[in-house]
Design brief:
Blueprint (H helix, E strand, L loop, with lengths): L1 H7 L4 H53 L26 H12 L13 H13 L3 H26 L4 H11 L2 H7 L5 H20 L4 H12 L8 H12 L3 H25 L5 H12 L7 H35 L6 H13 L15 H21 L3 H8 L3 H5 L2 H22 L4 H5 L1 H21 L12 H16 L5 E3 L6 H4 L2 E3 L10 H14 L6 E6 L9 H11 L6 E3 L2 E6 L6
Parallel strand pairs: 1-2
Antiparallel strand pairs: 3-5, 4-5
Length: 589
């Protein structure tokens, strides 16, 4: 300190001010050096805990799948269960048809409603492991669910949640709805993983601006995974800017990130068909107010107006419904309702007291504090923005599986609120020196206890045991598909309401025109002509008649048409409770 005193002896108020500034800088440098030397031995311990946490989170879903009542498949690897052989899930047949079209290079047959991320993952798995589309799709979903826990944990650690990051991840990997989703065939697990992965990559890019292009690629793949995921790159951008340091680093990261998202978008839709704007609006309206039939332009306009009317009607209560959905999903039994909602709001707007605020050398304390507090609140806003679609889903009365895709981010939001609350309580008791010295252990202990208690309760729930059992309907569809493969060549069109059977035989669904238009014999004959015109291939057209369908899957007119066909043709095969007919391409029936 001799040099500092010499500066002070120079006289004058300027010299005195300079002496105080340099003295404070020296104190901060000394404190930072002491803290770094004290934390150096602990860093290895923390790294070891992180590794153990990731290993545990990787293993937990594997244990959950091997639950009571799960049937293994003889001659298959241990992780394959009976349901993995079937196209079981919402729109499973449509997603399988899309994957087969891409695998066979039939780009013109790709459905623009099925955005390509999951399809690309599935086709890549089919080619690498040389397996069928059903097993490949299930394998993709299983791997995505295994990776979900570590992604949530690492994102929580980067957000300063400490032990609460493990609590959120442990709760997510045993959550019954997500376990059931991972055992179904379809895109939902991809959306569930890609949303937090986008936030994780963006948070890394916030501290390392040169990582922004990789974060942009992840965000671009998220955007083209599902129609409900188009806006999530904006959430990643907000988090990246909020966690960045220095205005030029933030600007560079933002430009690189947006550029990568744009390039991924352009590249993907230079290969895959882009959904036109009119069809995009119709798809959203169909998701809100399903029609299920070809209703014409007037009917589509009426459906769009009906969807907007429903959104306006439910909008005032949508926020409350979204909060109730999160709280009822994650709040442990016995937790007061007010506290559950408070944790959500603390995760949204709380400054996250788990972060230490210490100004670096040469910076004004108030300026550093305001920047850290603002950045921490902005991080909470970014995480909460990823939950914003829950409000739209509540207003639209969408199927719960869309909301389930955002449960990992919602769990992280509640964990952030819990971390803020726990850290604030520990800081309030910091006058007790031993408690203050071990506060990070106390916070981690509180979170670990919560995670163990909550996940243990979910583990005992009996409804998890039936999550991966194959329904009889899917078994029958597989039997029909195998019979079709024995009697018809792959690549031709097949007329059937039982879409799930067609991918097993490599057949295409037809016709795209919904028929018959009238429930009488002239209408039936007109439908035969439509089938002959729209079903690709040569030779006889497979026509499947089954009684194991609901009216939603097969309209009344089509049921009557199938009965009319059965009086004029002889079945070539029977399987899975269905009859298979060979419809000639020419001649009268």
């Amino acid at each position: 300190m001799t040099g500092l005193r010499a500066d002070r002896s120079g006289g004058g108020w300027w010299a005195a001010l300079l002496w105080h500034v340099r003295r404070r800088q020296a104190v901060w440098r000394e404190a930072a050096a002491l803290e770094a030397s004290a934390r150096r031995p602990r860093s290895w311990f923390v790294a070891g805990v992180d590794v153990l946490a990731v290993v545990a989170l990787l293993w937990m879903p594997l244990l959950a799948w091997r639950r009571e009542g799960v049937v293994s498949v003889p001659g298959k690897p241990w992780w394959i269960v009976e349901s993995d052989q079937f196209l079981y899930g919402p729109d499973a047949a449509a997603w399988a048809q899309n994957a087969l079209a891409l695998n066979q290079g039939r780009l013109a047959d790709l459905d623009p409603h099925r955005l390509p991320t999951w399809t690309v993952f599935t086709v890549g798995t089919m080619r690498v492991f040389d397996i069928d589309v059903a097993l490949a799709g299930h394998l993709v979903n299983r791997v995505e669910h295994v990776l979900l826990g570590p992604v949530i944990y690492l994102l929580g650690r980067l957000l300063g949640l400490k032990g609460f990051a493990f609590a959120a991840a442990a709760i997510v990997v045993v959550q019954p709805h997500l376990l059931a989703s991972a055992c179904r065939f379809g895109v939902d697990p991809t959306v569930t993983l890609m949303v937090p992965l986008t936030l994780l990559a963006a948070r890394v890019a916030g501290g390392r601006w040169w990582f922004a292009p990789a974060a942009g690629v992840v965000a671009g793949l998220t955007m083209v995974s599902h129609l409900t995921a188009l806006g999530f790159p904006l959430c990643g951008l907000v988090l990246m800017v909020a966690s960045g340091r220095g205005w030029w680093r933030r600007l560079a990261a933002a430009l690189l990130y947006c550029g990568a998202v744009y390039l991924v978008f352009r590249w993907v839709f230079s290969v895959f068909p882009m959904l036109p704007e009119a069809f995009f609006k119709d798809s959203l309206a169909e998701g809100i107010t399903p029609t299920g039939d070809d209703i014409g332009e007037a009917g589509r306009a009426a459906a769009r107006e009906s969807a907007l009317s429903l959104l306006r009607t439910n909008a005032p209560l949508a926020l409350n419904a979204a909060l109730r959905f999160i709280a009822m999903t994650f709040a442990p039994a016995g937790l007061p309702w007010a506290l559950s909602v408070a944790l959500i709001w603390l995760g949204f707007l709380g400054p996250n007291a788990a972060r230490r605020v210490r100004p670096p050398s040469g910076k004004a304390a108030w300026r550093h504090l305001s920047r850290r507090v603002f950045g921490s609140v902005a991080e909470g806003v970014a995480v909460a923005s990823a939950c914003a679609p829950l409000i739209a889903f509540a207003a639209a009365k969408s199927p719960e599986r869309y909301s389930d895709n955002l449960l990992p981010v919602a769990a992280l939001l509640m964990a952030r609120g819990g971390a803020t609350l726990a850290a604030a309580a520990v800081h309030a008791l910091s006058f007790l020196r031993p408690l203050f010295s071990f506060r990070w252990r106390i916070e981690a202990g509180i979170a670990a206890i919560l995670a163990v208690c909550w996940s243990a309760g979910e583990w005992r729930e009996p409804h998890q045991r039936s999550a991966v059992l194959a329904p009889a309907f899917e078994k029958n569809a597989l039997a029909v598909g195998q019979a079709l493969a024995d009697h018809f060549p792959a690549g031709i069109g097949a007329a059937s309401c039982l879409r799930e059977a067609l991918p097993y035989a490599g057949l295409l669904y037809c016709p795209n025109t919904v028929c018959p238009f009238s429930d009488n014999e002239p209408g039936y004959r007109r439908c035969v002509e439509i089938i002959r015109k729209e079903c690709p291939g040569t030779g006889a057209i497979p026509l499947i008649v089954t009684d194991d369908l609901t009216l939603e899957q097969c309209p009344v007119n089509r049921v009557h048409f199938d009965a009319w066909v059965e009086t004029r043709l002889v079945p070539v095969a029977s399987a899975g409770g269905s009859r298979i007919y060979a419809l000639p391409r020419t001649g009268e029936l």
